[in-house]
Design a protein that fits this description.
By secondary structure, the chain is α+β, with helices and mostly antiparallel strands. The chain contains ten helices and 13 strands. Strands 8, 9, 10, 11, 12 and 13 form a six-stranded antiparallel β-sheet that branches. Helix 1 crosses helix 10. Bound molecules: adenosine-5'-triphosphate and magnesium ion. The site of magnesium ion has 2 residues, from loops.
Length: 326
């Protein structure tokens, strides 16, 4: 197949006065090593593959390349549904692509909307409310401790060492700080004290579950960016067969509820009574070719896949869904 690889690289951030190139705001974007690894994996399998940068001329370049399939992992730059922008363009061009479409990307990028969907379908998620302006924090009816995070971010952007709050004054201060970081709505959630898991899905298969152990009680932005952070991962997580089955069922249910396709990675927590809660779902898990940094790659490795096999298995899952001949 001829495959166009689409990703937004950190080195190509657009000019933006509020978010200079080294600002945390861009930490979600990809490293050129990921693109190189994906292209290499596809070529190893005999595909023709080329990286096409999703700049303003992307439509012209895609029409010129005429791919059979697009391997999309664009996070986008601006806007609350930025992960949905390339899928929208690909739909318009009638080009098939891996992964989730416009609706799934938009729903999961907005954690508030995703949690409303979980409520609607009866999937467990921590109690929550949203703040649409830092100057109007309404009455909080959820018991402390609470957790403060942006509604539309990844890589723990807007989550620092004060995100866990024990009282109203700290809550007000933290909402203001987070707002200032992202200038967008902020989610206030019940803090779930307990174990944390991250679950990767490929097609309808749940890969080995990872437990994330953080000595500070949650996984902050500073820890995600620090190669020497004390956070570590255990895979497969130590779980009873019943708990594992429950987590797998919950994760597949969340993927289905958000209309996600092909692959995703999601974070869950378990409280002292072993109740499971979905924190959030990522339709575009990090595919950086180092299992120590990328949980999806780690789970795939524990499942017995090399990086090349993982990428080509993802292509197979998408091709099957789309009815494409390999
Ligand atoms: N309600 C909560 N209770 C306890 N911890 C939480 C809660 N919400 C978030 N956290 C902690 O903060 C971390 C980051 O939160 P979350 O996964 O929602 O952010 P993210 O920026 O979308 O992450 P990712 O890097 O996975 O995209 C979680 O991994 C968890 O450790
Ligand atoms: Mg997360």
């Amino acid at each position: 197949m001829r495959i166009a690889v689409l990703a937004n690289l950190k080195k190509d951030v657009p000019f933006d006065i509020e978010h200079p190139p080294d600002h945390d705001y861009w930490d979600d974007l990809d490293d050129p090593r990921t693109v190189r690894a994906v292209v290499r994996a596809l070529r190893r399998k005999g595909h023709e593959a080329k990286y096409i940068a999703p700049r303003l001329n992307v439509i012209r370049r895609l029409l010129a390349y005429q791919p059979d399939l697009c391997f999309n992992f664009c996070e986008g730059h601006f806007g609350v549904s930025r992960e949905a922008q390339i899928p929208a363009i690909l739909d318009m061009l009638r080009l098939p692509y891996t992964g989730s479409g416009v609706l799934g990307m938009s729903l999961s990028h907005n954690k508030y909307m995703a949690k409303k969907v979980f409520h609607w379908v009866g999937l467990p998620t921590p109690d929550f409310m949203v703040v649409n302006s830092p100057d109007e924090i309404p009455n909080v009816e959820i018991d402390f401790p609470l957790f403060v995070k942006p509604t539309h971010e990844g890589t723990s952007i807007g989550i620092n060492e004060n995100a866990l709050v024990q009282n109203y004054d700290c809550l007000v201060r933290q909402v203001k700080w987070a707002w200032n970081e992202v200038k967008a709505p902020i989610l206030i959630e019940k803090y779930i004290e307990g174990r944390e898991f991250t679950v990767s899905i490929m097609g309808d298969r749940v890969l080995p579950i990872i437990e994330i152990v953080s000595p500070t009680g949650y996984y902050s932005h500073g820890q995600k960016e620090d190669e020497n952070s004390p956070v570590y991962r255990i895979c497969p997580a130590k779980l009873s067969p019943e708990k594992r089955a429950e987590i797998e069922k919950t994760a597949l249910g969340a993927m289905c509820a958000l209309e996600l396709q092909d692959f995703c990675r999601m974070d869950l927590r378990m409280d002292a009574e072993e109740n499971i809660y979905i924190l959030e779902v990522n339709p575009l898990p990090l595919l950086f070719p180092d299992p120590l940094q990328a949980s999806y790659v780690f789970s795939s490795k524990v499942a017995g896949m090399t990086y090349t096999q993982m990428i080509n298995n993802l292509i197979e899952v998408s091709a099957k869904r789309l009815g494409l001949k390999m």
